[in-house]
Inverse folding.
């Protein structure tokens, strides 16, 4: 018996829900934001470029007339921008149902640093999203049934995460090894975040996903990968399905990892995938959390304030 394919048609109504999608002007983030808007969510399109963001908002409104789409500028490479974004969001919105940590960069030609002095890929892909999530955590946990979705990659299998050298200052820089390391970090962050949600007794859940091999701007720094795009890559609407599944499917499990079901998990429809061994190390997840907290300078709030137990106690 063949398994039915999960598509965006199966997204339940998102009316009344608020979602933030980082990197929503391009590729998988754009398709994710569009699909959520089509189902009635109020979508905050979080982008670093006003021009590209406005184009995306216009395209989403064209596909989903009347959709509530709000462009808010966010540069994940700058912690002060992340803090400002979070402060503005918290002023404007009293709930946050979905935080989709999607934005990313891959394989810059050589080692680069963010203005805060972090290696570019760990800085944007992990630390920027870590800081954003911490800054929004209380609003998330105060919103019943909310989810955080971290977009990782199969490249976690090539990740060379060294918790003693997160910034690649003590070893020769490897652009794939460091991209993969940032994607291991996305997974470890999901694991520890979900552990903390469970321990605090809140209803918020953390999931991870990856889009297989999808043709987007991400491949701009690799001619080799681009050469295989016509043969292997999926279109962005399909690459966005694991993200959407992790975000809204009642069958997605807290702490789960979702990606395509076919051809070495490079193509297909959403299914549960196996993370790399390095991505499931509970001690490494705790260690990375503490390191990240120190680096971004945002302490994790006390989640128990919004726990179901505490809410019950108040009745
Ligand atoms: N495509 C794939 O095959 C594949 C495979 C595995 C995992 N992924 C993951 O999927 C996610 C989405 O990538 P994609 O394939 O859709 O690539 P994409 O088309 O290049 O989109 C990446 C998005 O991230 C944004 N971004 C980059 N740096 C940022 C920053 N400092 N602050 C805020 N936004 C920033 C980009 O903005 P600009 O347009 O302004 O640059 C863009 O909107 C990434 O996390 C990527 O690692 C993709």
């Amino acid at each position: 018996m063949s398994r039915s394919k999960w598509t965006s048609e199966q997204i339940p109504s998102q009316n009344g829900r608020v979602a933030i999608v980082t990197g929503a002007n391009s590729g998988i983030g754009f398709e994710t934001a569009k699909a959520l808007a089509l189902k009635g969510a109020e979508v905050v399109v979080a982008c670093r470029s006003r021009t590209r963001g406005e184009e995306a908002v216009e395209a989403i409104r064209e596909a989903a007339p009347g959709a509530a789409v709000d462009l808010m500028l966010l540069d994940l490479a700058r912690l002060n921008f992340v803090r400002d974004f979070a402060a503005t969001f918290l002023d404007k919105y009293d709930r946050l149902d979905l935080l989709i940590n999607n934005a990313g960069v891959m394989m810059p030609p050589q080692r680069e640093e963010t203005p805060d002095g972090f290696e570019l890929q760990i800085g944007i892909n992990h630390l920027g999203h870590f800081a954003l999530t911490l800054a929004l955590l209380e609003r998330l946990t105060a919103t019943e049934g909310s989810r955080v979705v971290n977009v990782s990659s199969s490249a976690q299998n090539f990740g060379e995460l060294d918790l003693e050298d997160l910034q690649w200052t003590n070893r020769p820089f490897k652009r794939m090894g460091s991209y993969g390391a940032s994607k291991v970090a996305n997974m470890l962050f999901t694991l520890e975040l979900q552990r903390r949600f469970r321990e605090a007794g809140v209803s918020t859940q953390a999931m991870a996903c990856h889009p297989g091999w999808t043709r987007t701007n991400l491949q701009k720094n690799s001619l080799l990968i681009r050469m295989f795009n016509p043969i292997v890559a999926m279109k962005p609407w399909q690459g966005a399905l694991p993200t959407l599944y992790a975000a809204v499917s009642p069958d997605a499990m807290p702490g789960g990892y979702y990606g395509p079901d076919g051809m070495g998990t490079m193509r297909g429809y959403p299914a549960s995938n196996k993370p790399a061994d390095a991505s499931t190390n509970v001690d490494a997840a705790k260690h990375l959390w503490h390191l990240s907290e120190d680096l971004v300078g945002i302490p994790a709030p006390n989640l128990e304030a919004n726990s179901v137990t505490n809410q019950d106690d108040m009745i």
